[in-house]
Amino acid sequence: MNLLIFLSDRCNMSCDYCFLDLNHGRATVIPEEAALKAVDAHLEKFGAEARFTILGGEPLIHFPVLRTIAGRVHAKAPKAPMSVVTNGTLACPEKLSTLESLGVSVTVSLDGRGDAHDRHRKLAGGPGSSLEESLKALEACDKSGLRANMVVCRDTVDSLLSNVEFLRETGFKELSFHLNVIEEWTPDELRVLEKTLAGFARYYKALQAASPGALRLSHIDSYPETALEHGYEDVVLGADGRYYPCDGLFALPYRQLDRWSVGDAASGVDWGKREDWHRVAREFIHPRLERPGHFSCARETYFRSVVLNLDPDPVVRSFHAADEIMGTALRALGSSEAHAGPR
Ligand code: SF4
Predict the structure, then answer these.
(1) What's CA 32's distance to the chain center, in Å?
(2) Is residue 193 part of a domain?
């Protein structure tokens, strides 16, 4: 059971595929007390099964709160897996070493070379290269212990291989992939994805043969089928201190999320209400999956479509078709299951 904790609705970037409503109106920042209460409740309920993912917007904007939350988890359950997903622009060796000492693994969202990365990832403050900002901040940091997460879009598939090579040359030794959850792929684009991943497989096998362990792969959307039987594995705590059935709902501003909330940090998760929403999602999604292997983000795709008033049917089918291709290719290369939230 993974508790996703969203620290705020602020980010210094403005990515066009971001699934969060960010930087509008008054900031919503998680009250520290609510976050700590949620951590305690999660540990109490799930014990050794509990894990934590801390997200933003950009979580390093709120480093003191992040450190306090991570410190609480570490003090109570030093072995609980804990990760942070950041765009890297505010990283520095001191922050990363503090996180490491608290047992937090760090994922940096980087899509590869500038023409792929900057195409979708813009700086919130105006022009400039977000890739350059991230790399500048990371320059003095040891990147070998960080994971890079690459969002793959229809229009960046063709440069996937050179983007991987770029991240490897930059110093990353672990890489995960995440599809843009809200694109509709045409049959032709799916064929390009398949072909590209076949080329990537050849590259990866040659790399492993020449230098074993040079690059580890993980696939964020890959979930065991048991997740289908036992319900969804995330508990989502929004920056407003309330629980939600899925983070895809954060495509709406927090003030419009009333009807979706399934409890708050003070009173705890309303598990019945959460299950009701999940049942609705399951009943919609299941018939649209050819093979229910990759599920978590089909849910995110579904909820995000619903709140954006899109017809979820083609979006869910399309996402799933692309995810099947990517998941199958990466699993064949020994990719391990990973977890994250925003990109
Ligand atoms: S995807 Fe990440 S870096 Fe980009 S706007 Fe969203 S939270 Fe910020």
Answers:
(1) 22
(2) yes
